[in-house]
Amino acid sequence: NIGLEGMMITGAFFGVIGSQYTSNPYMGLLIGIVAGGLMALLHAFLSISLKADQIISGTAINTFGPALASILLFTLLNRQGQTDGVAKIQYSPEMRSFLLGIPVIGRFLTELNYYVFLALALVALVNFVLFHTVWGMRLRAVGEHPKAADTLGINVYRTRYIAVVLSGMLAALGGASQSIGTNNLFREGMTNGRGFIALAAMIFGNWKPGGALLAALLFGAAEASQIIAQRFGLPIPNEFYYALPYIMTMIAVTGFAKKSRPPLSVGLPYEKGSR
Predict the structure, then answer these.
(1) What is the mean pLDDT of residues 113-139?
(2) What is the 3-state secondary structure (H, E, C) of 234-274?
């Protein structure tokens, strides 16, 4: 899904809009996820039904998502650049007190948020679905050899639609984790290329949820190295640390793309009845 960046920014924007209009950040999160799913549905229609080149379609989504957010920011809120602060999803005082009471790691846990635990749970859930359920087996079959899957009665188009929409909803969840999780507002460009980093993490992780998690932690550590360097007073320009995650992304894509084994039919439109 080349359009992850556009779907993330869509989730980030509509998460804030939903939180502002409903005064409920959980409703905002739901609205953001739905918006990301609709953006993914557009991508699926272009690339599955119309058989458009998925790179071009995804690039269009990456352009359309931020543009739509910018237009609606001005139209709905008469603002440019960023929204006002809204309610965000965060620990309740009781939950924070509970976490602080946990020996050794309690203070560390209070620096996280619910999205971190949700992300870890989703890795386990997605891994289970992909490799231990019938639907996961069908999904992998559609990615590897759609013609063979079709002959076995698997609806290739429907399976691909579901997969793309789910990926868009998860991407939107990632975007909302920034706008109503880490922050409490939407700012243009706030995803800052993390959708592309997510693609690199998938490749670096050999197209498996656990591997992608480890790769994401590696990229996150690279981003956090700026804070560590400042703490130790290392005389290295901050620009280097800002660029480090993206440098690692390029290394991952160029150095590990050949070693990583993608599904055989990834990115290829399927024509029912073709030989």
Answers:
(1) 95
(2) CCCCHHHHHHHHHHHHHHHHHHHCCCCCCCCCCCCCCCCCC
| pLDDT per position as a tens digit, 7-21 | 999 999 999 999 999
Q: Report the alpha-carbon angle 219-224-226, nearest 5.
A: 120
φ and ψ at residue 154, rounded to 5 degrees: -80, 130
Chain-centroid distance, C-alpha 164:
12
Model confidence at 178, pLDDT cuts 50, 70, 90, reads very high
Looking at the DSSP assignment, which residues form a beta bridge with residue 187?
82
From 215, 205, 219, select the one nearest 259 (Cα to Cα): 205
Angle between helices 238-256 and 209-232 in degrees, nearest 10:
160
CA distances (Å), origin 54, targets 158, 166, 213, 269, 272:
17, 17, 24, 8, 18
Q: d(Cα 115, Cα 97) in Å, to the nearest integer?
A: 18
Residue 40 has pLDDT above 70, yes or no: yes
Answer yes or no: are the C-beta atoms of 59 and 46 closer than 8 Å.
no
DSSP state letter for 47: I
- What are the DSSP calls for 89-129, one per residue? ----HHHHHHHHTSTTTHHHHHTS-HHHHHHHHHHHHHHHH
More confident residue, 141 or 203: 141
Helix count (H) and strand count (E) of the chain?
12, 0
119-128: pLDDT as tens digits: 999 999 999 9
Going by the DSSP 8-state scheme, the letter that residue 184 receives in this structure is S
| Residue 267 to residue 42: CA distance in whole angstroms | 16
Question: What tokens does 217 get?
Answer: 């932690």
pLDDT at 193: 87
Mean pLDDT of 151-159: 93
